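Reply to dn_fold:

You asked what the input looked like. This is it:
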Amino acid sequence: MTETEQLDDDGAIAAATEVLPLDAWHRAKGGRMVEFAGYWMPIQYEGIMAEHLWVRENAGLFDVSHMGQLLLSHAGGDKAALHAAVETLLPIDLSTLQLGMQRYSLLLAEDGGVLDDLMVSRWPDYLYLVVNGATKWDDIAHLREHLPDDIVINHLDDQALLALQGPGAAAALGRHVTGEWPLSALVFMRFGAFQIGGVPATISRSGYTGEDGFEISIPADAAATVADLLCAEPEVKPIGLGARDSLRLEAGLPLYGHDLDPAIDPVEGDLAFAISKRRREEGGFPGAARILGHLADGAPRKRVGLLVDGKMPVREGAKLFDGNTEIGVVTSGGFAPSVGAPIAMGYVPTGLSAPGTAVAAEVRGKRVACTVAAMPFVPHNYVRKTGA
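and this is what came back:
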């Protein structure tokens, strides 16, 4: 089942224990609230399809304050020791991560399985990590257990995190941002310190929709002020988790706990790009033997996109077949508003992973024809040149 279905099924979710800084704001805007990752969160406001298409054409504001924001530092200020320690857990080369840059990475188990996917940014004296909300407490415990005692982990639980996504995001945000340089100086996977309406903010040009956009870390007590400023712009509407899920699926982006889990390694998950060149040569990260072996010889399975024939959605958990042989499973699926058809994501043997390969999914006892497709399903629209 998809993230949306899981959110709709109260029996599949642990009881919410906390509210986000914008809880009252969401309710006042008409947000339909559900329990997810231990929080009340908005799944939709005016409808998932309408919100999805609005983001593709304009800009949407997402509350992702459930995510974990972590600052890692060395107690003695030894940045080289900090980087070396973190590299024992992530397959990243921090020597190539310059100040003001961020990078996608993976927290790996001892056997190379993925414990979480995350973003790493380099600050002057810190590494700033954004981890998934559903796994953040496990991530923090894992980091505390495996990092040396002189590595300090600061959970920024007094910060909210907002994502402004869509082709109108830069114009809408730019009307309220001040700083040492213009917002247009940020390109994809870069960040900087700014102010939004006088509120201090760390802003990165990144997101989870495939569109141009920004992720904005601000003090939790100022979240409503910033949200009101942005949603007063004609391009911007508040958007719920339902559209966030359909947008990321069209963008070919995996969702941890569905498309990624501890049984899947980065090569199987089609995330080999997250293993830096030097780490491929030197190893030294958890599960290096398994992962480097899969890089050299090929993994037994691979995460792929699937175009679904007809109008019936294929959901998470559907079995995949090659003829009468069961070959894999769907890990995410649903109707794709921008594509105008059902799509899915799942795992198949590498020998059946080439785009154009015909497979079938089993839905309610019937076989639905699918075709392996290249991802993303819709082009990414990231801004990679200064001034855009």
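The radius of gyration is 21 Å.
Hope that clears it up.
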